[in-house]
TrEMBL record:
Residues 37-253 form the Polyphosphate kinase-2-related domain. The keyword Kinase applies. GO terms for molecular function: polyphosphate kinase activity. One of its GO terms (biological process) is polyphosphate metabolic process. Keywords: Kinase, Transferase. Belongs to the polyphosphate kinase 2 (PPK2) family. Class I subfamily. SUPFAM superfamilies: P-loop containing nucleoside triphosphate hydrolases (SSF52540). InterPro entries: P-loop_NTPase, Polyphosphate_phosphotransfera, PPK2-rel_1, PPK2-related. PANTHER family: POLYPHOSPHATE:AMP PHOSPHOTRANSFERASE (PTHR34383:SF3), POLYPHOSPHATE:AMP PHOSPHOTRANSFERASE-RELATED (PTHR34383). This is Polyphosphate kinase 2 family protein.
Length: 293
């Protein structure tokens, strides 16, 4: 199955999350069955990220959105953790600091956008500014309703400057969220993840649904598509996202840059070193003798 085509929100379409099966798992019956495919895609991610880093011309921005306990941290750990940290940065966005609140709402997100050759992962993103602020009336409708167009313009600007954007909404149902809350309560090693906010937001389920649906409908574009990922099964979530990211990177046809030196000359120097060491013996590490010492 083409997961990108299946889960992509087509530009101009109207999203109805009640029609999306959060427990969808394609042909797979278990994590064990899906694991070989997940590992193959993780290997592809690792290689393709290396190509992006080496080429240094383009970048990738991955945005993860979802309700509390939807699996944003798990996606980063089990899927995107395959990437080399040297070329990848994760930024989590919480309540804005005083400095951040003193700027336009996109300022802190633009600062965290990836440089060429880099991958940036947003754990929550600029979409918080059309979600929580709307649900809790932190700004007026006049303000947040303008932000869809501002977000689209921001993402278009990033794309035109070489940043490819993938946005994933991790879709779980109310029963699954409650089950995950219980798992956290039952596991002392996960107590640190529990917050009052998780329970404070639960009564606003329908309000968040409406806010998510509007954001997904108004801000899925050709240059920055949204994907609604069924996430009740964590392993299927991982499989779908790994596949979509890997296939997107492959489509960029990235190439390693031409060497900046004459490889034939370097090869000669290498063999000269090997011959010299063979005649004079190999120095131990650190035993480099310089003239005058």
């Amino acid at each position: 199955m083409n997961y990108a085509k299946r889960f992509r929100v087509e530009p101009g379409s109207k999203v109805d999350l009640s029609r999306v099966d959060a427990s969808f798992k394609d042909r797979h019956e278990s994590h064990t069955q899906a694991l070989p495919e997940i590992e193959r895609d993780r290997d592809r991610l690792r290689e393709l990220q290396y190509r992006m880093y080496a080429e240094g011309k383009r970048s990738l921005l991955i945005c993860l959105q979802g309700r509390d306990a939807a699996g944003k941290d798990g996606t980063i750990k089990h899927v995107l953790g395959a990437m080399n940290p040297q070329g990848c940065r994760v930024t989590g966005f919480k309540v804005p600091s005083a400095e951040e609140a003193g700027h336009d709402f996109l300022w802190r997100y633009h600062k965290a956008a990836p440089a060429r050759g880099q991958v940036a992962i947003f754990n929550r993103s600029h979409y918080e500014d059309v979600l929580v602020v709307r649900v809790h009336d932190l700004v007026s409708k006049t303000v947040w309703s303008k932000r869809y167009a501002q977000i689209n313009a921001f993402e278009r600007m990033l794309h035109e400057n070489g940043t490819h954007i993938l946005k994933f909404y991790l879709h779980i149902d109310p029963e699954e969220q409650l089950a995950r809350f219980k798992q956290r309560l039952d596991d002392p090693a996960r107590h640190w993840k529990i917050s009052d906010g998780d329970y404070a937001e639960r009564p606003y389920w329908d309000e968040y649904t409406a806010a998510f649906e509007d954001a997904l409908s108004q801000c899925s574009t050709d240059q920055a598509p949204w994907f609604i990922i069924p996430a009740n099964h964590k392993w299927f979530r991982n499989l779908a996202i790994a596949r979509i990211v890997a296939e997107t990177l492959e489509s960029l046809d990235m190439r390693f840059p031409e060497p900046s030196v004459d490889i034939a000359e370097i090869r000669k120097k290498y063999h000269a070193l090997v011959d010299a060491e063979g005649q004079g013996g190999r120095s131990e590490p650190g035993e480099h003798h310089h003239k005058g010492q």
